[in-house]
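Worked problem 6 (solution included).
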Amino acid sequence: MSKVERVLTGALARVPAGASRREFLRLAGLLGGAVAFAACDDGDEITGGGETGGPVTLNFAQPLDVLRYAFALEALEADFYTRVVANAAFATAFASAAERQLLTDVRDHEIAHREFFRAAITAAGGTLPTLTTRYPSTVNLGDRGSVLATARTFEDLGVAAYNGAGRYLVSRPELLTLAGKIVSVEARHASAIRDLLAPNTDRFANVSDLAALGANEALGLDAKATPTQVLAAAQPFIAQSLTATGV
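Solution. The predicted structure is:
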């Protein structure tokens, strides 16, 4: 079976039974990128551990490890929103149907992103890192304020991570283009979450509070973070130790 066939077979198998046409087309669009990656890649080797649940080392000199980095972040976000939506207190914490729908849509986006990277890494002959999520006691998945504060942390971090990792994909323009498509969706998530936290204000667009990560409100430039910064921020939510090399 060719790499392209493996991508299609593996990813399409993950489309939930009874999925809507919208969800199918969303995943199909992401599949196009996975196919593009699989068709041109001869299979980079992965350095570092993590495959058996041990420490995860990501070598940013290898494009495949940049995908594993993105997979780790998307898997964390997908896990978080899945837990939030499945929580018994979801309807109580988020009494507004519109807010529940927004968080459900974000969950679906993050799952689609995770599955895209899963398919692309597997198609390239790579191995997925084994990750175990954990949440500090300060995170209450049944409380609106706690959920939104955590979501804001994840979404702002995700945008900064993609912006900071683009430089490692300059030799792979097809991957850089796909990363740009995904980070634009993550930025929509970030603005939506900020608007829920402070409705009818400029907080959905204002990035002055991210100046430490290079955001410039006056110039309209969002934040970017190095892999080392991102992994340190994500570490409290992932049981395995995370290390970046080649940065």
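Discussion: The chain has eight helices and two strands.
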